[in-house]
Each structure stands twice: as structure tokens, then as C-alpha cells.
Design a protein that fits this description.
With 313 residues, the protein is α/β, with parallel strands linked by helices. The chain is 46% helix and 14% strand. It folds into two domains: 146 residues, no CATH class; 164 residues, no CATH class.
């Protein structure tokens, strides 16, 4: 497949755009992810003409707002410039399927950015650019580079990017009731692994779709789907899905095969095996005994195997 378009803070690609003239090149992003993602660079502070190097910015709390100002001169306020820059990027961002941001940045920080006030600094802010983009595109998968070092968070973000891209490129452009139903059917097991109650609600919403209400239903469906996917899938939920999938083999497996699966599932539940082990064993059985529903589901093959995301879960 073509590379997925993903936005990124330019410094993470090695661009020397930091306040001190340096960069924060990330090896995983430029190595593994670059093989699957086509990166579109953003640097809000350079974009509004602050130059490199430059004095640092910080977020400060006012009576009714949070402002981006120069650290040593709070009269130098660039909040409106950053807001305008962000709006100018909306057209390009609307064509992206994800966004990776530099943590702690007063322009790009996704969360927990320090906001300075009379009581000192509190890690409760969001960079101006990040806030504008996330408010405008609430379904867009967004993550910070630091959190990608956590295997669970990394898998969660990449899965969201692949699914959102699939929706945006393969389903939404020519959406129909049938295509919405197909999207849900093929992702249902993934939704189950994140939150079974929300999965049932997604099925209920999808079942409401008719030609005359399709756009409204699809918007509600996508919002809940992306909210579902933000939740980290647990071993317990994965186990429930794996056992559900095993049910499609109940007539094909002999006693020894069934016992082997039970033992593998139990070891996975105890944390002795990564998710890839039971998934690979199930894939083996379905190659011998194909099932149309399971073959069309994305659960057993959610993204390219070379990403090795399930090896660490």
C-alpha cells in the first residue's frame, strides 16, 4: 500500500528548527515508521517567522485564556500568530491520517505542557498549534514522540492511524450504508479488544444507517470508533476476542489442537507470551480451515507484520 500521510513536528525529523538551533531527531520515527508513513513537517514557531535560534516561549495563564509569550518578555505575545498559522494548515492537515508532536512544546505539546501562573508552573496545558488542530480534527490520531517509546501506546497510536486512514481513503469518499456496515464488520473484533460495551454501541449506531441519515450516523459512528480505539486494549479483552475467534474453529479442531490453544491462551493471559503467539497459531488454523468472516476481519492482521507491534504486547 502507499505510505500513509502523517503530520509531524519538524524537529523530530532532524530539521534544525529548535529555539537553540538544534533538532530532536527520533530514530524510531525516521527508521521504522518512515517505511510506512509519509511525513508532512510542521514547525509553528518558525512558521510565524520567529527564526532560528530564538528566545524561548512559554504558556502563561491569564484571567480567561492561556497565552504563548516570550519567556523573558511577556509583552511579546505570539498567541494570535500561532492561531492564524494553525488555521492556515487546516487544509493540509485534513488530508492527513495522524499527527506526531514534540512533547512539552508551547506550540506543539499535546498535553501536560507547563502553564505558568501566580502559583507557579502546572503541567496542565496544551501547545497552541496542538490545541487548534485537536479541536478542529477531534478524530485525528495524535501522539507525542516521547510516548511512542511505550509499546502499548505505540501500538495504540499506529493502529488508530491505520484504521483512520482506511476510513478516510477507502470508505468515506464513496460512503454507503453497505460500506459502513462492512467497515464495522471488519473492525468489530478490534473494537471488542478495546471496549466491548462501546463495540456493541457501535454496532447499534451502524444499524441505524439509511441513505437519508447516512452522513449524520457516519459522523457519530466515527467519533465513537476513534474514542474506542484510544483506550488501551488489555490482555483480558484480547483474551475474550481470541476465545471468540476460536469459536469459529470448534468443528475443525481436534482435541489436541483445542488443548494447545487453551494452553497458549492461558500463558498469554499470564503475560508469559506476547499477543503474536496466539494470533500466529490462529492464523495457522484458519489457513487450513478458512472462514470468510475471520479472513475479512482486520484483527489478526491489523498492520504490516514488519512493524512487529504485537511482539511486545
Amino acid at each position: 500500500m502507499d505510505k500513509i500521510p502523517v503530520g509531524i513536528s519538524a524537529c523530530l525529523m532532524g530539521d534544525e528548527v529548535r529555539y537553540n538551533g538544534g533538532h530532536k531527531r527520533d530514530a524510531y520515527i525516521n527508521g521504522t515508521l518512515a517505511g510506512h508513513f509519509s511525513f508532512h513537517r510542521f514547525c509553528p514557531e518558525v512558521g510565524i517567522g520567529l527564526g532560528v535560534p530564538r528566545p524561548t516561549l512559554r504558556l502563561i495563564a491569564t484571567d480567561d485564556d492561556v497565552r504563548a509569550v516570550r519567556t523573558e518578555d511577556q509583552s511579546f505575545d505570539v498567541t494570535e500568530e500561532l492561531v492564524n498559522y494553525s488555521r492556515e494548515q487546516f487544509a493540509e492537515i485534513s488530508q492527513l491520517s495522524g499527527l506526531i508532536l514534540k512533547r512539552d512544546s508551547p506550540s506543539c505539546g499535546m498535553a501536560r505542557v507547563k502553564v505558568y501562573g501566580t502559583a507557579g508552573a502546572r503541567p496542565e496545558g496544551r501547545g497552541v498549534f496542538a490545541r487548534m488542530v485537536m479541536d478542529q480534527f477531534p478524530c485525528l490520531p495524535v501522539e507525542e514522540e516521547g510516548r511512542l517509546g511505550d509499546p502499548g501506546l505505540r501500538e495504540n497510536f499506529i493502529q488508530r492511524v491505520f484504521i483512520y486512514h482506511r476510513w478516510r481513503s477507502d470508505y468515506f469518499p464513496a460512503l454507503s450504508v453497505q460500506k459502513l456496515t462492512d467497515f464495522h464488520a471488519r473492525h468489530k473484533l478490534i473494537f471488542m479488544s478495546h471496549d466491548q460495551n462501546q463495540c456493541r454501541e457501535l454496532g447499534r449506531i451502524a444499524a441505524l444507517a439509511r441513505p437519508d441519515n447516512l452522513n449524520a450516523v457516519a459522523a457519530e459512528y466515527l467519533s465513537l470508533a476513534m474514542d474506542n480505539l484510544k483506550k488501551i486494549a488489555t490482555r483480558k479483552n484480547h483474551l475474550n476476542v481470541l476465545q471468540h475467534i476460536q469459536g469459529y474453529l470448534k468443528k475443525q479442531l481436534d482435541a489436541a489442537d483445542k488443548q494447545e490453544l487453551i494452553e497458549i491462551f492461558e500463558r498469554f493471559e499470564r503475560g508469559e507470551l506476547p499477543l503474536i503467539v496466539p494470533v500466529t497459531l490462529l492464523q495457522h488454523h484458519f489457513r487450513k480451515s478458512p472462514d470468510d468472516y475471520i479472513n475479512r476481519s482486520w484483527y489478526l492482521n491489523p498492520y504490516p507484520a514488519e512493524l512487529r507491534l504485537m511482539n511486545l504486547l
